[in-house]
Protein backbone atom coordinates (compact mmCIF):
# COMPACT_ATOMS: atom_id res chain seq x y z
CA UNK A 1 0.00 0.00 0.00
CA UNK A 2 1.35 3.42 -0.95
CA UNK A 3 0.86 6.03 1.75
CA UNK A 4 1.66 9.73 1.31
CA UNK A 5 2.37 11.68 4.52
CA UNK A 6 1.99 15.42 4.04
CA UNK A 7 2.20 18.88 5.59
CA UNK A 8 5.39 18.61 7.63
CA UNK A 9 7.80 21.47 6.93
CA UNK A 10 11.25 19.86 7.23
CA UNK A 11 13.21 17.42 9.42
CA UNK A 12 16.75 18.79 9.60
CA UNK A 13 17.07 19.89 13.26
CA UNK A 14 13.26 20.02 13.45
CA UNK A 15 12.59 17.94 16.54
CA UNK A 16 8.83 18.44 16.41
CA UNK A 17 8.55 17.03 12.88
CA UNK A 18 10.87 14.13 13.74
CA UNK A 19 8.83 13.42 16.86
CA UNK A 20 5.61 13.14 14.87
CA UNK A 21 6.92 11.28 11.83
CA UNK A 22 9.18 8.56 13.23
CA UNK A 23 6.82 6.92 15.76
CA UNK A 24 3.93 7.22 13.28
CA UNK A 25 5.84 5.34 10.57
CA UNK A 26 6.99 2.74 13.07
CA UNK A 27 3.50 2.04 14.39
CA UNK A 28 1.55 2.09 11.12
CA UNK A 29 4.15 -0.24 9.59
CA UNK A 30 3.33 -2.77 12.31
CA UNK A 31 -0.24 -3.03 10.96
CA UNK A 32 0.12 -2.46 7.20
CA UNK A 33 2.56 -3.45 4.48
CA UNK A 34 3.37 0.08 3.33
CA UNK A 35 5.58 2.12 1.05
CA UNK A 36 5.95 5.58 2.57
CA UNK A 37 6.48 8.88 0.77
CA UNK A 38 6.72 12.06 2.82
CA UNK A 39 6.37 15.64 1.64
CA UNK A 40 8.32 18.59 3.03
CA UNK A 41 7.67 22.21 2.12
CA UNK A 42 10.91 23.96 3.14
CA UNK A 43 13.41 23.94 0.25
CA UNK A 44 16.25 25.33 2.39
CA UNK A 45 16.95 22.00 4.10
CA UNK A 46 15.84 19.68 1.31
CA UNK A 47 19.33 18.23 0.68
CA UNK A 48 19.72 17.37 4.36
CA UNK A 49 16.19 15.98 4.46
CA UNK A 50 16.99 13.63 1.56
CA UNK A 51 19.66 12.05 3.75
CA UNK A 52 17.25 11.90 6.69
CA UNK A 53 14.72 10.10 4.47
CA UNK A 54 17.34 7.64 3.25
CA UNK A 55 18.42 6.90 6.84
CA UNK A 56 14.83 6.12 7.85
CA UNK A 57 13.65 4.25 4.77
CA UNK A 58 11.08 6.51 3.11
CA UNK A 59 10.85 8.56 -0.08
CA UNK A 60 10.83 12.36 -0.04
CA UNK A 61 9.02 14.94 -2.16
CA UNK A 62 9.35 18.74 -2.03
CA UNK A 63 5.77 20.00 -1.89
CA UNK A 64 5.11 23.27 -3.75
CA UNK A 65 3.47 26.07 -1.80
CA UNK A 66 0.35 27.41 -3.44
CA UNK A 67 0.51 31.16 -4.11
CA UNK A 68 -0.89 33.63 -6.63
CA UNK A 69 2.26 33.52 -8.78
CA UNK A 70 1.83 29.73 -9.09
CA UNK A 71 -0.81 30.32 -11.76
CA UNK A 72 1.30 32.82 -13.68
CA UNK A 73 4.59 30.95 -13.99
CA UNK A 74 5.02 27.80 -16.08
CA UNK A 75 7.63 26.37 -13.72
CA UNK A 76 5.33 26.74 -10.71
CA UNK A 77 2.43 25.16 -12.60
CA UNK A 78 4.64 22.18 -13.43
CA UNK A 79 5.45 21.74 -9.74
CA UNK A 80 1.76 21.72 -8.88
CA UNK A 81 1.12 19.22 -11.68
CA UNK A 82 3.80 16.87 -10.27
CA UNK A 83 2.26 17.18 -6.81
CA UNK A 84 -1.19 16.27 -8.16
CA UNK A 85 0.34 13.27 -9.93
CA UNK A 86 2.01 12.22 -6.68
CA UNK A 87 -1.36 12.21 -4.90
CA UNK A 88 -2.91 10.27 -7.78
CA UNK A 89 -0.29 7.52 -7.48
CA UNK A 90 -0.87 6.94 -3.77
CA UNK A 91 -3.61 4.92 -2.08
CA UNK A 92 -3.89 6.93 1.12
CA UNK A 93 -2.98 10.51 2.05
CA UNK A 94 -2.45 11.44 5.71
CA UNK A 95 -1.85 15.00 6.92
CA UNK A 96 0.71 14.84 9.76
CA UNK A 97 0.99 18.54 10.56
CA UNK A 98 1.05 19.19 14.32
CA UNK A 99 -1.24 22.24 14.29
CA UNK A 100 -3.58 23.83 11.75
CA UNK A 101 -6.08 26.67 11.25
CA UNK A 102 -4.37 29.11 13.64
CA UNK A 103 -6.75 32.01 13.25
CA UNK A 104 -4.96 34.60 15.40
CA UNK A 105 -1.92 34.98 13.13
CA UNK A 106 -1.61 38.06 10.85
CA UNK A 107 -4.56 38.01 8.42
CA UNK A 108 -2.55 37.51 5.22
CA UNK A 109 -0.70 34.53 6.73
CA UNK A 110 -3.96 33.06 8.08
CA UNK A 111 -5.57 32.94 4.62
CA UNK A 112 -2.39 31.77 2.85
CA UNK A 113 -2.03 28.91 5.34
CA UNK A 114 -5.71 28.03 4.99
CA UNK A 115 -5.46 27.72 1.19
CA UNK A 116 -2.32 25.58 1.38
CA UNK A 117 -3.80 23.33 4.07
CA UNK A 118 -7.00 22.71 2.10
CA UNK A 119 -5.30 22.20 -1.27
CA UNK A 120 -4.07 18.66 -0.58
CA UNK A 121 -7.47 17.57 0.75
CA UNK A 122 -9.14 19.03 -2.34
CA UNK A 123 -6.86 17.19 -4.79
CA UNK A 124 -7.16 13.94 -2.80
CA UNK A 125 -10.93 14.27 -3.04
CA UNK A 126 -10.79 14.85 -6.79
CA UNK A 127 -8.91 11.56 -7.17
CA UNK A 128 -11.21 9.80 -4.66
CA UNK A 129 -8.30 8.96 -2.36
CA UNK A 130 -8.72 8.19 1.32
CA UNK A 131 -7.61 11.29 3.21
CA UNK A 132 -7.03 11.65 6.96
CA UNK A 133 -5.80 14.27 9.39
CA UNK A 134 -3.76 12.58 12.10
CA UNK A 135 -3.87 13.79 15.71
CA UNK A 136 -3.10 17.52 15.93
CA UNK A 137 -4.19 20.82 17.49
CA UNK A 138 -6.63 23.20 15.81
CA UNK A 139 -7.42 26.90 16.11
CA UNK A 140 -8.09 29.29 17.59
CA UNK A 141 -10.81 29.96 15.02
CA UNK A 142 -11.62 33.57 14.23
CA UNK A 143 -14.13 35.26 11.93
CA UNK A 144 -17.35 33.67 10.69
CA UNK A 145 -16.26 33.10 7.06
CA UNK A 146 -12.96 31.51 8.06
CA UNK A 147 -14.69 29.24 10.58
CA UNK A 148 -17.35 28.26 8.03
CA UNK A 149 -14.69 27.18 5.51
CA UNK A 150 -12.81 25.18 8.15
CA UNK A 151 -16.00 23.47 9.32
CA UNK A 152 -17.04 22.53 5.79
CA UNK A 153 -13.72 20.86 4.98
CA UNK A 154 -13.25 19.10 8.31
CA UNK A 155 -16.76 17.64 7.98
CA UNK A 156 -15.65 15.85 4.81
CA UNK A 157 -13.28 13.62 6.81
CA UNK A 158 -14.37 10.18 8.10
CA UNK A 159 -13.51 11.38 11.65
CA UNK A 160 -11.29 13.94 13.35
CA UNK A 161 -8.50 13.24 15.83
CA UNK A 162 -7.74 16.20 18.11
CA UNK A 163 -4.75 16.65 20.39
CA UNK A 164 -6.18 17.05 23.89
CA UNK A 165 -9.49 17.51 25.67
CA UNK A 166 -9.53 21.32 25.84
CA UNK A 167 -8.75 21.59 22.15
CA UNK A 168 -11.50 19.04 21.44
CA UNK A 169 -13.91 21.22 23.40
CA UNK A 170 -12.97 24.14 21.16
CA UNK A 171 -13.35 22.04 17.99
CA UNK A 172 -16.75 20.73 19.16
CA UNK A 173 -18.07 24.30 18.96
CA UNK A 174 -17.75 23.96 15.17
CA UNK A 175 -20.51 21.31 15.34
CA UNK A 176 -18.91 19.08 12.73
CA UNK A 177 -20.89 16.39 10.93
CA UNK A 178 -18.34 13.69 11.87
CA UNK A 179 -17.14 12.01 15.10
CA UNK A 180 -14.39 13.86 17.00
CA UNK A 181 -11.90 12.06 19.28
CA UNK A 182 -9.19 13.24 21.66
CA UNK A 183 -5.79 11.51 21.51
CA UNK A 184 -2.27 12.26 22.85
CA UNK A 185 0.50 13.53 20.58
CA UNK A 186 2.26 10.64 18.86
CA UNK A 187 5.71 11.95 19.89
CA UNK A 188 4.95 10.84 23.45
CA UNK A 189 5.57 7.27 22.26
CA UNK A 190 9.07 7.97 20.91
CA UNK A 191 11.88 6.32 22.89
CA UNK A 192 14.96 8.44 23.77
CA UNK A 193 18.58 7.60 23.12
CA UNK A 194 20.00 5.62 26.04
CA UNK A 195 20.72 7.29 29.37
CA UNK A 196 24.46 6.57 29.30
CA UNK A 197 24.89 8.51 26.06
CA UNK A 198 23.20 11.58 27.59
CA UNK A 199 25.26 11.38 30.77
CA UNK A 200 28.51 11.22 28.81
CA UNK A 201 27.40 14.07 26.52
CA UNK A 202 26.69 16.36 29.47
CA UNK A 203 29.81 15.29 31.38
CA UNK A 204 31.90 16.61 28.49
CA UNK A 205 30.14 19.98 28.83
CA UNK A 206 30.04 20.66 32.59
CA UNK A 207 31.85 19.43 35.74
CA UNK A 208 28.71 18.50 37.71
CA UNK A 209 25.65 16.93 36.09
CA UNK A 210 23.65 16.04 39.20
CA UNK A 211 21.43 19.12 39.50
CA UNK A 212 20.86 20.75 36.11
CA UNK A 213 18.21 23.44 35.61
CA UNK A 214 17.13 23.46 31.96
CA UNK A 215 15.49 26.22 29.93
CA UNK A 216 14.31 26.36 26.30
CA UNK A 217 13.36 29.76 24.85
CA UNK A 218 11.11 29.93 21.79
CA UNK A 219 11.48 32.05 18.69
CA UNK A 220 7.72 31.61 18.19
CA UNK A 221 6.88 33.46 21.42
CA UNK A 222 9.55 36.06 20.70
CA UNK A 223 7.88 36.70 17.32
CA UNK A 224 4.44 37.25 18.85
CA UNK A 225 3.72 40.98 18.90
CA UNK A 226 4.80 42.47 22.19
CA UNK A 227 1.70 42.94 24.33
CA UNK A 228 2.18 45.72 26.90
CA UNK A 229 3.17 44.37 30.28
CA UNK A 230 3.03 40.70 29.17
CA UNK A 231 5.71 38.12 28.24
CA UNK A 232 5.64 37.88 24.45
CA UNK A 233 8.08 39.53 22.04
CA UNK A 234 11.28 40.85 23.62
CA UNK A 235 9.77 40.40 27.07
CA UNK A 236 10.01 36.64 26.48
CA UNK A 237 13.77 37.08 26.11
CA UNK A 238 13.89 39.19 29.27
CA UNK A 239 11.88 36.59 31.20
CA UNK A 240 14.29 33.84 30.16
CA UNK A 241 17.23 35.99 31.26
CA UNK A 242 15.68 36.63 34.67
CA UNK A 243 14.97 32.92 35.15
CA UNK A 244 18.58 32.09 34.29
CA UNK A 245 19.93 34.76 36.67
CA UNK A 246 17.75 33.55 39.53
CA UNK A 247 18.47 29.83 39.26
CA UNK A 248 22.10 29.75 38.17
CA UNK A 249 24.55 29.37 41.06
CA UNK A 250 27.64 27.41 42.06
CA UNK A 251 25.60 24.32 42.88
CA UNK A 252 23.09 24.41 40.06
CA UNK A 253 24.18 24.88 36.44
CA UNK A 254 21.62 26.18 33.94
CA UNK A 255 21.49 24.54 30.53
CA UNK A 256 20.09 26.40 27.51
CA UNK A 257 18.50 23.86 25.17
CA UNK A 258 17.45 25.21 21.73
CA UNK A 259 14.70 22.99 20.39
CA UNK A 260 14.02 24.14 16.82
CA UNK A 261 17.28 24.80 15.03
CA UNK A 262 17.87 26.46 11.69
CA UNK A 263 21.06 28.17 10.59
CA UNK A 264 22.01 29.35 14.07
CA UNK A 265 21.82 32.99 12.94
CA UNK A 266 18.26 33.92 11.99
CA UNK A 267 16.46 35.45 14.97
CA UNK A 268 13.11 35.06 13.23
CA UNK A 269 13.28 31.31 12.68
CA UNK A 270 15.99 29.69 14.81
CA UNK A 271 15.92 28.84 18.53
CA UNK A 272 19.69 28.33 18.48
CA UNK A 273 20.20 31.91 17.30
CA UNK A 274 17.97 33.10 20.14
CA UNK A 275 19.72 30.90 22.70
CA UNK A 276 23.12 32.19 21.55
CA UNK A 277 21.88 35.76 21.91
CA UNK A 278 20.67 35.11 25.46
CA UNK A 279 23.91 33.33 26.39
CA UNK A 280 26.10 36.13 25.06
CA UNK A 281 24.05 38.90 26.68
CA UNK A 282 24.12 37.43 30.19
CA UNK A 283 26.46 39.51 32.35
CA UNK A 284 27.43 36.41 34.32
CA UNK A 285 27.38 33.15 32.38
CA UNK A 286 29.98 31.35 34.47
CA UNK A 287 27.57 28.56 35.36
CA UNK A 288 25.44 28.83 32.21
CA UNK A 289 25.85 26.25 29.45
CA UNK A 290 24.48 26.11 25.91
CA UNK A 291 23.71 23.04 23.80
CA UNK A 292 25.36 24.58 20.74
CA UNK A 293 25.09 21.46 18.62
CA UNK A 294 23.48 21.16 15.19
CA UNK A 295 23.92 17.41 14.89
CA UNK A 296 21.57 16.10 17.58
CA UNK A 297 18.44 14.06 16.84
CA UNK A 298 15.14 14.42 18.66
CA UNK A 299 15.82 11.16 20.51
CA UNK A 300 19.20 12.46 21.71
CA UNK A 301 17.73 15.78 22.82
CA UNK A 302 14.99 13.91 24.67
CA UNK A 303 17.66 11.90 26.48
CA UNK A 304 19.45 15.13 27.48
CA UNK A 305 16.19 16.60 28.82
CA UNK A 306 15.80 13.38 30.82
CA UNK A 307 18.93 14.32 32.83
CA UNK A 308 17.53 17.62 34.11
CA UNK A 309 16.42 18.21 37.70
CA UNK A 310 13.99 20.97 36.66
CA UNK A 311 12.90 22.42 33.34
CA UNK A 312 11.25 25.59 32.02
CA UNK A 313 10.36 25.29 28.36
CA UNK A 314 8.39 27.21 25.78
CA UNK A 315 8.53 24.57 23.04
CA UNK A 316 5.70 22.01 22.73
CA UNK A 317 7.81 19.01 21.73
CA UNK A 318 10.45 19.74 24.36
CA UNK A 319 7.57 19.71 26.84
CA UNK A 320 6.55 16.34 25.38
CA UNK A 321 10.08 15.05 26.03
CA UNK A 322 10.14 16.34 29.60
CA UNK A 323 6.79 14.72 30.41
CA UNK A 324 7.82 11.47 28.73
CA UNK A 325 11.01 11.47 30.82
CA UNK A 326 9.14 12.39 34.06
CA UNK A 327 10.96 15.67 34.68
CA UNK A 328 9.35 18.44 36.85
CA UNK A 329 8.52 21.03 34.21
CA UNK A 330 6.93 24.46 33.82
CA UNK A 331 5.66 25.62 30.45
CA UNK A 332 5.87 29.10 28.92
CA UNK A 333 3.01 28.91 26.45
CA UNK A 334 1.15 30.62 23.61
CA UNK A 335 -1.54 28.03 22.79
CA UNK A 336 -4.05 25.77 24.52
CA UNK A 337 -2.06 22.72 23.36
CA UNK A 338 0.41 23.21 26.25
CA UNK A 339 -2.31 22.75 28.87
CA UNK A 340 -3.70 19.75 27.01
CA UNK A 341 -0.42 17.84 27.05
CA UNK A 342 0.37 18.73 30.69
CA UNK A 343 -3.06 17.50 31.75
CA UNK A 344 -2.26 14.06 30.36
CA UNK A 345 0.43 13.56 33.00
CA UNK A 346 -0.35 15.79 35.98
CA UNK A 347 -3.40 16.92 37.94
CA UNK A 348 -1.72 20.19 38.95
CA UNK A 349 0.69 22.00 36.65
CA UNK A 350 1.83 25.45 35.53
CA UNK A 351 1.53 26.92 32.03
CA UNK A 352 2.33 30.62 31.80
CA UNK A 353 0.43 32.25 28.92
CA UNK A 354 2.63 34.86 27.23
CA UNK A 355 -0.45 36.93 26.39
CA UNK A 356 -1.79 37.06 29.95
CA UNK A 357 1.10 37.16 32.46
CA UNK A 358 3.71 39.88 33.04
CA UNK A 359 7.32 39.21 34.04
CA UNK A 360 7.01 39.74 37.83
CA UNK A 361 3.95 37.48 38.03
CA UNK A 362 5.62 34.86 35.83
CA UNK A 363 8.75 34.87 38.02
CA UNK A 364 6.62 34.49 41.16
CA UNK A 365 4.74 31.52 39.70
CA UNK A 366 7.96 29.83 38.56
CA UNK A 367 9.45 30.29 42.03
CA UNK A 368 6.39 28.86 43.77
CA UNK A 369 6.36 25.75 41.60
CA UNK A 370 10.12 25.34 41.89
CA UNK A 371 10.18 25.51 45.68
CA UNK A 372 7.01 23.52 46.36
CA UNK A 373 6.92 20.26 44.38
CA UNK A 374 3.68 18.85 45.78
CA UNK A 375 2.27 19.04 42.23
CA UNK A 376 4.90 16.67 40.85
CA UNK A 377 4.48 12.88 41.03
CA UNK A 378 6.87 10.67 39.09
CA UNK A 379 4.86 7.54 39.95
CA UNK A 380 1.67 9.10 38.57
CA UNK A 381 3.44 10.17 35.38
CA UNK A 382 4.87 6.71 34.80
CA UNK A 383 1.44 5.10 35.25
CA UNK A 384 -0.13 7.54 32.83
CA UNK A 385 2.60 6.96 30.26
CA UNK A 386 1.37 3.38 29.80
CA UNK A 387 -2.17 4.64 29.20
CA UNK A 388 -0.95 7.35 26.81
CA UNK A 389 0.95 4.88 24.65
CA UNK A 390 -2.13 2.66 24.46
CA UNK A 391 -4.25 5.61 23.34
CA UNK A 392 -1.69 6.51 20.66
CA UNK A 393 -1.87 2.96 19.34
CA UNK A 394 -5.67 3.26 19.25
CA UNK A 395 -5.46 6.48 17.24
CA UNK A 396 -3.39 4.74 14.55
CA UNK A 397 -5.56 1.62 14.75
CA UNK A 398 -8.59 3.80 13.98
CA UNK A 399 -6.99 4.96 10.72
CA UNK A 400 -5.79 1.46 9.83
CA UNK A 401 -9.25 -0.03 10.30
CA UNK A 402 -10.82 2.67 8.15
CA UNK A 403 -8.22 2.08 5.44
CA UNK A 404 -8.90 -1.65 5.50
CA UNK A 405 -12.63 -1.05 5.12
CA UNK A 406 -11.84 0.56 1.76
Keywords:
six-stranded parallel beta sheet, five-stranded parallel beta sheet, single chain, alpha/beta
Rg estimate, integer Å: 21 Å
Cα-to-Cα separation, first versus last residue: 12 Å
In percent, how much strand structure appears in the residues? 5-15%
Number of helices: 15
Descriptive notes:
- The protein has 406 residues and is α/β, with parallel strands linked by helices.
- The chain has helices spanning 15-29, 46-56, 74-89, 107-126, 144-154, 165-172, 195-203, 219-223, 234-247, 271-281, 298-305, 316-324, 337-345, 359-371, 378-405, and strands spanning 2-8, 35-40, 59-62, 92-95, 99-100, 130-133, 137-138, 160-163, 180-183, 213-216, 254-256, 288-290, 310-313, 329-333, 351-353.
- It has 15 helices and 15 strands.
- The strands form four sheets. It has a six-stranded parallel sheet, sandwiched between helices. The chain has a five-stranded parallel sheet with strand order 3-2-1-4-6, with helices on both faces.
- The protein is globular and about 65 Å long.
- The chain starts with a strand and ends with a helix.
- The mean pLDDT is 94.
Amino acid sequence: MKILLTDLSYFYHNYGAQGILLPFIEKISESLDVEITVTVSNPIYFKQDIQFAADHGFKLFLKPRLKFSSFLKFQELQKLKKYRELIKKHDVIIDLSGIEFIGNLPKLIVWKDLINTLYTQKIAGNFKKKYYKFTKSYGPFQNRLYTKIVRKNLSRLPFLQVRGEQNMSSVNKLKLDIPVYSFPDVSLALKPTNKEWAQNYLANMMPDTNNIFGISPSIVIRNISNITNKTSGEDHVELCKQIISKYSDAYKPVLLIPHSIGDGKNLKTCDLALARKIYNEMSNNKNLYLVDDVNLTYQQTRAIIGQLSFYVTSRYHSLASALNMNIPTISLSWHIKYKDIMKLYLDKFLTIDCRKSNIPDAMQMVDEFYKNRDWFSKDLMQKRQTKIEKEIENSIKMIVEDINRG
